[in-house]
Each structure stands twice: as C-alpha cells, then as structure tokens.
Glycosyltransferase 87 family protein (Streptomyces nigra), 500 residues
Amino acid sequence: MSSAETTPMSAHEPDQVRPTREDEVAARGSELIGGPIGRRALLGTSWWTPVRIIALVAIGMFALGLVQKAPCYNGAWFFGASSQYTHACYSDIPHLYQGRGFADGLVPYFDKLPGDMQYLEYPVLTGVFMEVASWLTSGSGSIQDQEQWYWMVNAGMLMVCASVIAVCVTRTHRRRPWDALLVALAPAFALTATINWDLLAVALTAAAMLMWSRGRPLAFGILLGLATAAKLYPVFLLGALFVLCWRAAKWRDFGRALGGTALAWLVVNLPVMLLAWDGWSQFYRFSQERGVDFGSFWLILVQNSTDPLSTETVNTLATLLMLLCCAGVAALALTAPRRPRFAQLAFLIVAAFILTNKVYSPQYVLWLVPLAALARPRWRDILIWQACEVAYFLGIWMYLAYTTSGDAHKGLPPDGYHWAIGLHLLGTLYLVAVVVRDILMPERDPVRRGGEDDPSGGVLDRAEDVHVFGAAAHPPRHAAHDEEGPQVAWGDRKAVDGSL
C-alpha cells in the first residue's frame, strides 16, 4: 500500500478514519505489511473495500483456528482424554453429537436423553442450529467419522457467523471501518470460535447493534430477541439502552426495541414452551443448579476454602454482585459529563456479567470482542486484554490435562490455574477501567476525540440530553464555555437535578 497520507480522500469517503495515523501501535504494526494505509485503500473505487478486506481477514483467522484444532480432529478427541487438552484443541461440538442424542436422531427438547442430563441444556435457537448441523452430517461410517463430519459442518456454519460479525462491526461506525480489524485479528477469537456455538448469538448481537446505529430500533429489537433466544447475555444490552434512552428521553425508540426483542424471543421460544416445557426449561434449570465452575473467581474461593459456599449461596451472591454492577453502570450513564456511547455501556454491562458469573468458559471471550472493538478502538489496550485471554485459554486446558492425566500430573496444578484465572480477571478489569475513564473523560475517548458523538448510537447520536443527575446536571461555567461548539451542534442540555 502507498503511504501517501497527504493525498485528499475521495468524495465517497470524505472523513474516513485511518488508524495508522491516530494509533501508534497500528502504525508500527502496519510496517509488517508495507507501511501505513495509503490513499488508494480509501478511495472506494477498488474492489478491495474495508468490508471485503476485513471479512477476508476474519475468514483467514478463522481458518487458522481450524488448523489449530487439527491434532484433535486427527484423533485426540476420541483416543486420549488428556491429549485434547495438552494440544489445547478441545471442542464441545464433537462430544455433544453423541452425548446429546444427535447421533441417534433424538429431537432436542422433546426426546429425553440417557444419563443425568435429561434434555438438551441450550437455548432454543442454539438447539435449532445444532439440529440443522446434524441434518447435514453424514450418518455413515463409524461414530468417530460422524463426529468429525459434525464438527466440520458446524465449523462451516460458524465461519458464516464470523463473517457476519466482521461485516457488521465494520459497518457500525461509518467513519471507522478499520476498527473491525480488532475483531478479525483477535487471537482469542480464532482460538475459541469452534469450542461451542456462541458465535451464533454474537453474530445476531452484532447485526442488532448495526441496526441500532442506522436508527432502526424495531429491527434491532428483533435481532436482539433472536440473539437472546440463542444465548442469555444479549438481553443485558437492553439495560444499557434503557439508561441511555432515559437520559435522552427516547422512550418511543426504546419501546420499539423492547417490543421487538420480546416478540422475536417469544416467536422462537413459545412453541417449545407450550409443547415441551420440561425440555425448554432445562437450560434455565441447569444454569441455576450448576455448581461453581471453571474460570470464575468463585472457583478460586471454593478451592481454597475448608467450608466452600453452597451453589444456592453463590447464586444469590453472584446475582447481588451483578445487580450492584448494573446500578453502578446506570449511575455512570446518568451522571457522566457526556452521555456514554452505546457500545461503551454495552461492553461494561456484559463484562460485569462475565466477571461476576459463577462460570467462565473460554469461548465467552467471543461475547466481548466486538463490543470491545467498538467501545475502545485502541490496539494497545485490546492487545493487552487479548494476551491475558490467550494465557487463560492455555491455562484452562493445561489444568484439565493435569486433572485427567492421573498420577503423571501433566499440565498445570490448581494453584497455577488460579493464576491464569486471575490474569483473565485482571485483563478484563483493565479494559473496563479504560472504558470507564473514557466515559468520565470524553476527551480521552478515541471516537469522540475525532469530533463524533455516538456513531453506533442511532437515535442517540447527537441527541439532546433531557435527564442528567448529579454533578453533570450543573457543569461549571467555564466548562459550558469550553463546550459551546459541540453543545450548539447537539442541542442544549435540559438537566434534571437529582441523585441515584
């Protein structure tokens, strides 16, 4: 690419942000591929548009993730309990093909499973995804051959989801398409993409955020409802949206989003609820009854306690911690000097759920990657966080290798695994702290530093503030003078004094 940065851009993209000009890490990293991005990459007249480049990069990284699973595909899933962990290539997908009755033609939610798990313990839309993949899986050959084929079919379907995520993030910030490279090149994204089926919910959530950024709240709600029918976490975005719409008094738009979410979720879930209640409710029962598990700080407490907390106590405490975090995010949103961007609040609320939950499976990082790229598009911070997540990814498999290798004790002992958990927690907390700092100090926000308000905020972008609490309701006079230009552009703030 040419590095002629002074050449004017095309009229098609008059103000597109070039990360190699504003991000030192991106500029230095670009030397590996020929230097900072040049004018021809932004003209919009070439086939190589940002959307296509980023989608192809995402597919390439996804393919590298498939290669990383090759030792398991070639036998470690089937012939060695610990080798799938020492090679760090474990996946739930082939194991659940037989374990959840797909190999025997059982219908999810309707047919009982042999063993302790009576029904499929996944939300309905994920169950549909798994069932469709089983229809496309060859029933001939050994069970190992069928499980390999089932994994490959799912991998192909999940690759489509990865492409959708890349395209949606690229198009969410119109002026900042290249920020989506933070998603496409995220190492933890590639490593965990085929462990489970989380990419389906992540893709629907990314599409929902794209719709909201385009001012289409009903479409946002429908897609978010579908995402929630595939995984629970997307519903938390409604909480972030609620406080932002409260501050801007955008109740009609929030109502459309809420109505669309409820409608789409019911359309998917209601038939199964009515016809197979026990099967439908298995996911919720399992989530409630499941004990403290991998990746959470609760596991560290339990494994280092002579009198560990009961599952019921952990459920109660985790719920209270999550509610406390939600209250903190709401207070931050309503008292910040400027209304936070939607992506920032969405990231914080999902990160709070991850940090307080009683389990953190390694693929849960997928939930945060697109939100982090939109909330804090800075390579240094994302790479610090990703390094912590890759360390945790290796740590959990080495710990499982230790627990499954018998007296040989190959792998990472519990104390070492606790350090890996701590690294994951610290990495996530670091990114949370940086996003909170950007909210409290908008001049540090990479997006707002370029003169924008909330490019992923849809109807909230440049909207007038109506309800503001605390100190933000009475900005100092000198601050009002300093912000006179933006306030004229975005409307005068009508603050309501109060406190939370």
About this structure: DSSP finds 24 helices and no strands in the chain.
